[in-house]
Amino acid sequence: MGTVPSALKHCLSYQHLLKEQLWIGDPAVPPPAAPHPGQESQASGLPEYIKIVEVGPRDGLQNEKVIVPTDIKIELINRLSKTGLPAIEVTSFVSSKWVPQMADHKEVMRGIERHPGVQYPVLTPNLRGFHSAIAAGATEVSVFGAASESFSKMNINCSIEESIEKFEEVAKSARNMNIPVRGYVSCALGCPYEGNIIPAKVAEVSKRLYSMGCYEISLGDTIGVGTPGSMKRMLEAVMKDIPLSALAVHCHDTYGQALANILTAIQMGVTVVDSSVAGLGGCPYAKGATGNVATEDVIYMLNGLGINTGVNLYAVMEAGNFICTALNKKTNSKVAQASFSTATIN
Questions:
Q1: How does the average pLDDT of the chain come out, rounded?
Q2: Any idea what the Cα angle at residue 281 is, between residues 279 and 282, rounded to 5°?
Q3: Taking Cα atoms as reference points, which of 319, 321, 328, 310 lies closest to residue 344?
Q4: What local confidence, expressed as pLDDT, does residue 317 receive?
Q5: Which residues are catalytic?
Q6: Are 70 and 111 in contact (CB under 8 A)?
């Protein structure tokens, strides 16, 4: 056998690193058992387990200008369901007038394959959306408010106070039916209309949602302007009123700060992270906002920190490749870009 070129040696070593050290190579290998959220590693002070909430099928696709076929959405969700992800946000029960991409919400809900141990939450802005979601088979819902008055009016066509009243109706009905409700707070680190948002306002809205019965509050950097500093200040304010076990972060990567912001939140004790396969996403009412942080990149970082997610990174990359091929667009995941590029060279 001839001498192996040094470039090839490098590629082979790189693939070995990815496969053996960061657990992406064999999608058939079952994920390790996940400890309870909030358990900390005594050695590092970091949580042993982070729950990943996959928002790609909803938040990732809602901003696509070309309507994605229903069967493609269903196939994406079915692929993601096989990766070990514990929660996959499926769709949104909003008016097709406002978000035409989600007009097929009933068909998607009824068409997916549900896997044991996987949550399939959907967004419901009001009581009408809630009842439609339940009729379509939803077993968990989310309400989505904002810390910005202007954004609330643009996003859900009502003031913050009016939105809270609608959410309370949803929460009450959900409680009577034993349906879990998750709450979102958009613009937690900045607004496209109002600029900086004071942490106290984020805390106020979060407290209202938590008090009405939302089991978890996802704090969203909707336009991706946050930094580790602003993330820390915002979380410090919210943590005064809400236990860490009930908080999640939802970061967009417009300014390339998403992973740093997530790491800051984790170091402060947050154990739930929202992310989107292939970094898909944006916001119809936040001009200039790019995609959510890529699920692949979050898992790669957490694997490197020795934090378990129970998710097979390689399988997520494959799901990302599927949807990007269907959309005829390049993945926004740096990990997927590098890994598939190296695999081609190899």
A1: 88
A2: 130
A3: 321
A4: 98
A5: 283
A6: yes
